[in-house]
Structure formats: structure tokens, C-alpha cells
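Whiteboard transcription, Tuesday session. T.W. wrote the C-alpha cells on the left side:
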């Protein structure tokens, strides 16, 4: 016979009363007080493995290296020679003084157009004309909110510099039987929002065609009936319009049909067989 001390069991196990313990208590006329740990009770050899205390499984980390910040905000941005950056000070307000500081603005101008980025009050901007490198800094890099906006502002500025110099592109692939897309100068179901607006017309399995107006500043073309090319200076505007088109036929995992953006892929699932 082997004895086990239930005081060493987890807390949840102390509230359990196995039937063999209760039976042993009745036979020996033992009283098990509720406010005390379990009394050492004899156990049979073949019951010991079931009550052995095993260590709780710990989650296995994906990486054994220590967590490190990305330091995106401190990285310098290369400015092409044909791109000009100009820092615009906020206009002076007239009236009562407030604690909210108006944000500064960086105007980015290049061969493809113009763009602007607003700087939070705690973000500073500097550019080295000799090396053509722009850098951003914050007042207190230990403050979490400043670190978050540091990297975000730097990414916005880098995207605008790339947009006015080379442009942003999104390629949409239409996968499906009979899926087609065209770019038309007029539409029957949608009114133009500005003069000269074009419309993307989709045929993606519905009983009617889908007409979507191209946003201002975005250029749409169809090099192939199953391809849509979107180009523009503002990356957010280009990708937002691409997501709006994709929403009409989200890729499904059984036949692999849908509208795919850039290098998007989907893992096919096994067919449901009854």
C-alpha cells in the first residue's frame, strides 16, 4: 500500500472527494474536516499513476530571442533628387489660448504630384541636404504614445516620398469562369463625383454588372480582361479602392475563385462530401 498526501495536490483537486476515499473513511469511521487538508489515506498501487502530480505544460515560445523594438521611427529616409520636402508651420490662432498644439505639415512634391503629412507636436523633422536623408525624432522616446506615432509618421512620410517619385501600384486578379473587368468613361447606375471620372465595371457572377467610380488621384486600367491595374500617389487611396473592388468577390477556399490583390494566395480546403 502507498500513501499520498492530498495537501500537495492542486487547489482544484482538494475539493474533490474520490469515492474510494469516502468509502475508506466510512469503513474506518474517520472524520475528514473541511477546513483541513486531505488526510493521508492508503492507496492501491494501480491507482497511484492517476494521482501523480505532473507539471503544468508551459507554452513553447516561437522564438528564443529576446523581444526587441523595430526602431522604424529612427531609420533615415532616402529622398530622391527630384523630390522636394518643405516644412510648413501651423498658422497662428486668434482667440483663447488652448493646450492643444496645432500640428505641423510636411509638403512632399515630386514629378508625379504632391502629398502632405501632418506631424504630431512631439515629432521633430530634419533633413541633411548633403546626403539627402530625412530623419524624425520625438521629445521622449520612452513614452509609449510617442514611440507609436514616431514609427507611424515615418512610414507615412516614406510612402508619400515613394508615391510622388515612383507611384504606388495594385494589381487585381479575377479568378473565376466568366469573370471580366473593364474601365468605362460613363456608368448607368452611378453618378460621377467629379468631371472626367472613370468607372470600373465588373462581371463577377452576379445577374447585373457592378460599377465602381475611380477615386480622384487614382488611375485604373485593364491590361487583360481578368486584370485590373490601379496606380496613384497616395498608397492608402490605392489600396482602399483595391479592397473595395475585392469585397465583391472575396476569395473562397473550396474552388479558389475570387478577386486577389497583388500576391495574395489562399489555401484550398478539401471538398465537403456527404
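and on the right, the sequence the group agreed on:
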Amino acid at each position: 500500500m502507498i500513501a499520498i498526501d492530498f495537501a500537495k495536490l492542486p487547489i482544484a483537486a482538494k475539493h474533490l472527494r474520490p469515492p474510494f476515499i469516502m468509502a475508506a473513511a466510512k469503513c474506518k469511521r474517520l472524520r475528514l474536516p473541511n477546513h483541513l487538508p486531505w488526510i493521508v489515506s492508503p492507496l492501491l498501487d494501480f491507482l497511484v499513476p492517476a494521482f501523480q502530480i505532473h507539471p503544468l505544460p508551459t507554452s513553447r515560445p516561437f522564438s528564443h530571442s529576446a523581444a526587441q523594438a523595430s526602431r522604424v521611427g529612427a531609420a533615415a529616409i532616402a529622398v530622391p533628387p527630384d523630390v522636394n520636402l518643405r516644412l510648413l508651420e501651423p498658422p497662428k490662432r486668434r482667440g483663447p489660448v488652448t493646450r492643444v498644439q496645432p500640428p505641423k505639415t510636411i509638403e512632399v512634391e515630386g514629378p508625379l504630384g504632391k502629398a502632405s503629412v501632418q506631424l504630431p507636436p512631439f515629432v521633430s523633422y530634419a533633413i541633411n541636404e548633403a546626403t539627402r536623408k530625412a530623419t524624425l525624432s520625438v521629445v521622449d522616446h520612452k513614452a509609449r504614445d510617442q514611440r507609436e506615432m514616431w514609427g507611424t509618421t515615418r512610414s507615412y512620410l516614406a510612402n508619400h516620398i515613394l508615391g510622388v517619385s515612383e507611384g504606388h501600384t495594385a494589381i487585381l486578379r479575377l479568378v473565376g469562369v466568366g469573370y471580366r473587368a473593364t474601365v468605362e468613361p460613363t456608368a448607368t447606375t452611378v453618378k460621377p463625383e467629379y468631371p472626367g471620372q472613370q468607372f470600373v465595371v465588373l462581371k463577377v457572377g452576379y445577374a447585373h454588372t457592378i460599377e465602381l467610380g475611380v477615386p480622384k488621384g487614382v488611375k485604373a486600367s485593364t491590361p487583360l480582361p481578368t486584370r485590373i491595374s490601379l496606380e496613384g500617389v497616395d498608397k492608402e487611396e490605392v489600396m482602399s479602392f483595391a479592397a473595395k473592388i475585392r469585397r465583391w468577390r472575396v476569395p473562397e477556399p473550396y474552388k479558389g475563385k475570387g478577386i486577389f490583390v497583388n500576391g495574395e494566395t489562399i489555401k484550398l480546403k478539401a471538398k465537403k462530401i456527404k
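Someone added at the bottom: The two ends are 54 Å apart (CA to CA).
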